[in-house]
Amino acid sequence: MKIFRILSMILVLIMLLSSCSENTSNMGNKEDLSIKETVNDDAESGTSDVTDKDNDKDDEGSGNLSEYDPPVVLYYVEYTNVENGTIVGETEQLVERGGSTTEVKAVANEGYVFAGWSDGVKLDTRRDENVQDHTFVEPVFVKVGTIFTVRYEVRQSGKIIEERELNGMAGNTVQYTAPYPALGYSYGEWNDGAKERERNDTVASDGETYVINVEPLSLGVPTLEITTDDGSTVTDRVTYKSCKVTLSNTDEEDCFENVNAQIRGRGNSSWSYPKKGIKLKFDNKRSMLGSEHKAKSWILISNYGDKSLIRNMIGYDLSDEMSGLKYTVGHKFIDVYLNGEYYGLFMITDKIALGDGRVELDETIYDDPSKMAYILEIGAANDDSRPNLIKNVDYFSAGRDKGRAYFVNYPESDDPAYIPEVHLAYIRDYVDQCLLALSNQDWELICELIDIDSFIDYYIIQELYMNKDCFWRSVHFYKEPNGKLYAGPVWDLDQGLGNVADLFGVYEKETTPTTDIPFANSSYNKSAGSLWIASCNTWYRRLVRNEEFIELLKQRLVEFEPIMMKVLKRATTDGSNPNSYYSMYSDAMDRNFERWTIMGVQVWPNTKVIVEITTVKGQIDYMRKWMIERYAVLCDYYGVTT
Predict the structure, then answer these.
(1) How many Å apart are CA 411 and CA 495, to the nearest integer?
(2) pLDDT tens per residue across span 270-329
(3) In terms of Cα–Cα distance, which of 313, 315, 326 is closest to 563?
(4) In angstroms, rounded to a whole number, what is the distance separating the alpha carbons of residues 178 and 195?
(5) pLDDT score recorded for residue 379
(6) pLDDT of residue 157
(7) What is the 3-state secondary structure (H, E, C) of 181-232?
(8) Average of pLDDT values for 238-260?
(9) Which backbone phi and psi does 482 adopt, to 5 degrees?
(10) Is the bond into 416 cis (omega within 30 degrees of 0)?
């Protein structure tokens, strides 16, 4: 065999040298011929000059190098005979690169069985194709009755979640089927390239191990995997716990793996849902899903009570399109996996805070409180997600707004530069001035204190949604340094567009765009036709009594229709818009409701008709129709012709 290898290598070397010599000789001959032909042509034409143009033509032609034939490359393939069996066929072969061998077969001696080839091929008969290198393989023969062990491992995130060892007689097969992957997961390939869960393996050696990995199954949505250090789920809205976060199935430059972060729950009324909202806080600032800004804190909204899953998305899309609202939180769908379990389809958003890409105002805390920015949020002082609140430090009560609590989200009370007696006192007095001007209907002073355009656009979205929350929580204002008070950013719209049974305190009573509202809460036992925000929210109840405000509102309602219809294209379900939320994410939406089986089940704050709609498509269609009808009602109420 050694002699064969040596002779083969000598033969290959001779062929290479011969080929190179021949091609070099041919190239020289062709060059001489080319010169002779050129001289002869010149002689016939009566001139002996060779012009640059002629040389250019020679260069532009096929060229001498194109005539060069590359040498043939040969590889030797050896099927080595071993004890306890033989090989039928040509055991030593020379094959051109890319060529194929002739067929060989391994045959075991009596008392032995064939158990595979040394390179892992299992069939006794083989023919190697597309040979690209010298190859040496030998058959494996084992004694009849030899028992070997074959090991199978199913892994997830590097951990073995199932392992099985099977014994089999040499030459026979063993069968193994990996368990069906959990919801939201799929299998990659086995470590030997096999793709199916089911395996039939010929037992060839002892301890052979096959491994397959379970991976999140992407349905066109970015995947966020969160693994808490202690392995526990989210049960607390106050205390953070350490975790690792991995983002995949999105643009490569946005992906990351095992980044340190902290996690806690979030939400007010939605905290009662089994699918919990999440707040992530990274150790270092980072962008998410292509965001142009970096931040530590990001919010994951569960949208559990909104069976369309897109009420918030559409509301934020509207805000993006409205010129009066400067800042809108980023909002994209994302699949969340928590501690190795598919947790559902979420919406990832920015936190409402000062910073690049968020509320982009100066973050400096000045001694002069009028020179700095503020962010306020109307909420409930007894909210248990905000423990240990101190009145007139973390929040103040606005006496002219029924004593409602106004949280000072910026500046934060733990900032050493923040002095409540200075900064909180200033913004509290400013809000009081605004409410007094509204009460007195002093239009000139109102325009000096608040930004009218933002308040109009904010009102249209809230009234269009008939958003229950708008009068008592999740309402945000911000004040520019040395500037006015602005409405927004828009936040928390899932209890709108008909998804609010307890607006009336009666589940069976349907919320419709034209409903005349008899408020269940005796404190607001008033009827304002089909208006909601203008009746309940202190700011707007006073603003809509002002003729100047109404005229500007009517003009904006006319301008709003094309904005609304543009955004509602993203809420189509008939396939007419491939970029609609349903067209892009319907599979992911359906999977969410496999995880959370609430279709056809009453979940607060669903009305009866919403419970009766049992498909995502039906839910989105209902929401879309509701918005269009609600817009018509508002136009009719304010005397607007579109």
Answers:
(1) 29
(2) 888 999 999 999 999 999 998 989 999 999 999 999 999 999 999 999 999 999 999 999
(3) 315
(4) 11
(5) 84
(6) 85
(7) CCCCEEEEEECCCCCCCEEEEECCCCCEEEEEEEEECCCCCCEEEEEECCCC
(8) 95
(9) 55, 25
(10) no
